[in-house]
Amino acid sequence: MTPTLRTERLLLEPYAPEDEEDFVALFQDTDVSRWMGDGPSTEAEDRALFGRVFTKVYAQDLFAVWAVRRDGELVGHAEIKRTEAVDGHEIIYALAPAAWGIGLGTELARALLDHGFGTLGLSEVHATVAAENTASLTLLERIGFEHTRDIDEDDGSTTRVLTRRR
């Protein structure tokens, strides 16, 4: 079950069905989606993804997925889950551009780390970041993540794997 987490300025809570439009808007924002998964997807794909959060992830209690809110507004998305790409637990986060540059990304990443180390009892947490995403790489390095290896993607791009140990 996805727990509710709080930071100084953010509330991380499970999505509600009425979040669909804001979820789709976040994932359709090309400044956000260019760094997520395989890049931008169609609106229909993002709506299907939102549906799977309820029908699969929450229904089967697969991993934690949060709506990230500030002052009641959905400003981001976050997850922590086991993935084969890192052979461990990976944090995933995204913020709307309006929430960039004021320290919310750092606050969000720290909350995910605290959950991973505290609640889940993990000894290490990973993140995968496109090599060109310097903002996210800088943020993660600032909070103690270290570059551990690179993944050469089929499209010729590089994904950096970063790890933070307890």
Could you give a short description of this structure?
The protein has 166 residues and is an alpha+beta fold. The protein has helices at 20-28, 30-33, 43-58, 104-119, 134-142; strands at 5-6, 11-13, 64-70, 73-83, 88-95, 124-130, 146-152, 158-165.
Largest sheet: 5 strands, antiparallel
Estimate the global geometry from the Cα principal axes: globular
- The total count of strands amounts to 8
Helix and strand succession?
EEHHHEEEHEHEE
Uncertain regions spanning at least 5 consecutive residues: none
Q: Could you please describe the fold and organization of this structure?
A:
With 166 residues, the protein is α+β, with helices and mostly antiparallel strands. The protein contains five helices and eight strands; from the N terminus they run E-E-H-H-H-E-E-E-H-E-H-E-E. The strands form two sheets. It has a five-stranded antiparallel sheet, with helices on both faces. A three-stranded antiparallel sheet has the order 6-8-7. The chain is globular, with a radius of gyration of 15 Å.
